[in-house]
Amino acid sequence: MLNSSKEELINKFQEWFKNYLPLFLQAVSKEAIPDVSQNINKPYSLNQCTEDTGVSQLVLKSWIRTINRKGQSILYGSPGTGKTFIAEKLAKHLIAGGDGFSELVQFHPAYSYEDFIQGIRPQSQNGILTYPLLPGRFLEFSKKAESCEDTCVLILDEINRANLAQVFGELMYLLEYRDKEIPLAGGNRFRIPKNVRIIGTMNTADRSIANIDHALRRRFAFIELCPNYDVLRRYHLKTGFAVEGLINILEQLNQAIADKNYEIGISFFLTDNLDKDIKDIWCMEIEPYLEEYFFNQLEKVDEFRYEKIQPHLKLVSA
What we know:
The chain is α/β, with parallel strands linked by helices. The protein is built from 14 helices and 11 strands. 28% of the residues are buried.
């Protein structure tokens, strides 16, 4: 009971200190004190997030609960399902109204432990080559997050393109045991700040989650994204492009693909000049993708060549 009262008193003092210190400094200083409210992020409601992403509030609430409970999650799905866009909007909502921040790191096959955690990097100082141990992106992010009271979000884009077991290193342990602190391979001790959230994105056309290391899968919550045709409908209400014919073709095409990991998403067609751009999009982006997927069944590609689908598009958009 005594410990509880002491903790409450400390919390009240911290809150008082946060609210009244700027006023005290303003009173005793002749110089202008920066407005601390400038460091607070603008509000971004769940309703706004739904409007931007096309995902219902009920589903968004479930995702946000999962991200906060687990600490890290991966948005996965076929090309064009808006994974990065939705990750950025989720991050914007998570940091809204607080002093936190979000950053994005693009993973790639050459990305390493030294880039992400820490490593020795050669530097020249006064003509002398030195080899200091420098923090990687995640350690830099975490150090910055320690100075914030509210949620900070790191987006790992195309997370499956890197060798994750090698890149994460000791982080594999810390992702599961968020309250622990461990020594890193290159020295120094490290723990993940409690206010850090990680959102990864994963293109299943590159790599199915079935091929992800089981230990890594256990540490992340996986959120599946599928083609959302309602988003396409709402988007083109403002452009006047009649999309029902296109949606009908996409549904037939995805049935022909018959694998949710390789379906064609709708983000290819989120352009304000779709009536002018659709031929280029289809011929230069969709058809090459289909040729690769149906490399030994090119007759299926022929069914969805632009000259075959064009009459249906013209019929609807005329």
